[in-house]
Amino acid sequence: MKRHVITALNAFAVFAALVALWQIILWVFHVPRFMLPSPWAVVRAVGARFPSLVNALAITAEESAGGLVASIAVGVLVALLFAQSRWVRKMLYPYTLLLQTVPIIAIAPLILMWMGAGIPAVTFIAFIISLAPIIANTTAGLISVDENLVHLFLMHNASRSQLLFKLRLPHAVPDLFVGIRIASGIAVIGAITGELFAGSSRVGEGGLGYSILYASSQLQTDYLFALVLAATVLGFSFLFLVMFLEWYFLHRWHESARAQEAE
Amino acid sequence: MNTTAGLPEIEIKGVTKQYANAHAVLESMNLVVAKQEFLTIIGPSGCGKSTILKLIAGLAFPSSGTIRVDGKTPQNARETISFVFQDATLLPWRTVEENIGLGLELEHVSNDWRENKIAALLDLVGLKHVARAYPRELSGGMKMRVSIARALVTNPRVMLLDEPFAALDEMSRDRLNEQILRLRAEQNWTAVFVTHSVSEAVFLSDRIVVLAPNPGRIHAEFRVQLPAPRTSSIRTSREFDAIVARVSHTLRETLRQ
Predict the structure, then answer these.
(1) Residue B249 belongs to a domain with what CATH number?
(2) Mean pLDDT of chain A
(3) Per CB distance under 8 Å, which residues of A are interface residues toward B?
(4) For the domain that residue A243 is a member of, what is the CATH number?
């Protein structure tokens, strides 16, 4: 417990130092306020526009969480399909790489054109961008089972579904979590990217991305900073939630969760 | 001892095993293992020791020749065979008792029966105090005891053991050797054991088969006639040393060829 307090204090000290540095830069270089607002101005902006900030945050959170959950569900199903045969894997795997390499900025306008601007389209963009790491990591986990364990199951005349659900799937859970951890960060990026293109079409439906665009066009740099801060907080919350779930499900038996514990 | 002892349990006739485009791993192998016999296969790397176990288990198929276990093909005899691998190969997400019960679970044995059986085996291998622990909390020797318990839970008639103690320190290995002999005396299964250790082979076996490599074939056979029950004190006896010396000498011959 004491160790945790010290860790938290250290992290806070770094934060305080960064804020101090920020303020010193303002004083020393006389940076114009529309280019770099003071820390205090950002805090004031958060206070003054709190309801709209929270609203934007909630919309982006909904989109990225929706996209992430959908990508986990679909990604695991696709990985289960891939695990069935090398043949299926060879045929379809290149397309998951495509999913990973297509720049989301390039296809976001297309998706918006097809689906119409709004929360569903942005959720879909978050879903697309987080799908690849889930598929890749889960598939790797499903097929990397020790051959002797497969033999052991075969010795007991295990069925295909027993092999899948009692051996391959539990074995893949740590890898699935690695995928979710990666996806949780980029789901938020995907949602904000989508909003940069889409958010403006409906009043009151603009998430952080839309608000960032709006604030920058109005040179409201202090609010822009507040929005960026909110986006960061969102990303961090996702990451912490995922790490907590990972610890909860794995700490009894898996090395990675134990390593987290020891830190 | 029951009356079927001495009849053939495993019959390997003219078995050759060859992988595509490679020289034979095993060539024209003939080997009969009697019911309740403890047979050890020993030989240099690449002589096909592990392949023999996989063939008996029906996890690999001979290129030619036949294998019968209790008169049946290996695949049809699977219920009577258990395999213990070189690594403990436990499922890390399952507790000790869940690992031991795996085979019964896969074979859809009822919960009550399973629980009784698991409890009995935990007793037998002395792991009751760690029943709820996960494999990563156990020492290498304890993991191997779980692995052996998992193999015994289905009441096998044939135990195939592929260098199960190779990764353990000598103390644990000696203790597990004694435990294996005790378990077999209680349960009368037939064992085919693969090892690199001559003294382990001599301590455990009724018969030792020495294989030569390239291609894998039987080079020599030894009957081990040490008094039963074998206890740790046998290891320091003159007879024991004499047999170890003879087997070691033969083993070296296979390398010189």
Answers:
(1) 3.40.50.300
(2) 88
(3) 146, 148-149, 151-158, 162, 166-167, 170-171, 173, 252-255, 258
(4) 1.10.3720.10
